[in-house]
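Troubleshooting: if your tokenizer reports a length mismatch, compare your output against this known-good record of 305 residues.
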Amino acid sequence: MSQKVVVIYGAATMGQELVQAVATAGCEVILIDHSEEKLNTGLKKVETALDSEIARWGLTSGEKRAIMSRIKGTTDIRESVKGWLVIETLKETLDVKRQLFKELDATCNPATIIASNSATISITEIAAGCKYPERTIAMHFQSPIPKVPLVEISRGLKTSDETFATAVRFAKMINKNVVSVYDCPGFITTRIILPMINQAVKVLEEGTASCEQIDTAMKLGFGLNAGPLALADKIGVDTVVFYLENLYGETFDQSYLPAKLLKKMVRAGYKGVKTSKGFYKYGSDGLRLSASGLRVEQLSQAQHQ
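Known-good structure output:
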């Protein structure tokens, strides 16, 4: 186990962004994914993200080379033994996360901290069955991780004071502000933002206003960087539905019952930026196309395509 190595498990978007942020902060990073294809794609996207920073004068070519030299990729979970901290970024499914935690618990050094980036599942539940639950913790980062200066940290019922303190030091080392949250699915940000997105979708579904008008009103009225519908596209409409259903199952709060339109859009393949079509349309570069908001009269078409 090296005091310099951080292991990230999962090469999808959150894993890519976390690798970039941690390596940029000067740590060596091992990115692990069970799929060689996903791993290679993830590493290429990290490099592409750094190239984008160079293009906007936020990074030099030399700095990019230094960052990439600190990143290694593997499909072998046994490589996690080299890290003093392991952060998983897998899909939001309890069984999947719990199984990985059990494997990491058996593989890693007992002193290694095992963290989850889960947005809606309790760390106590994820760590159930671990031999060393005192070294488990939740660290919820916000996308895009390299740019959002926040991490919500939640300790489980058996998380030790030392584990919590070390997680806080790590967060500060990678230039994140820490908000401490009691062990609760959804933390602060997810629990508050999802009902807002859900209500925005209902406003659209009722024909009260267009996508652009809804997003403009919320951005200008409340100083948001992105409107709720554009944010849903960025997160992924299917992911929004998944999060809402998870939180409804945990809380039985009616505000988390997904709007009908959300489910219909997922069935129609309108999943947001990743499918180039959601509440807005997007180009191959992921940028939103002008005047492309989903119109109320198009809703029935979206439901049957």
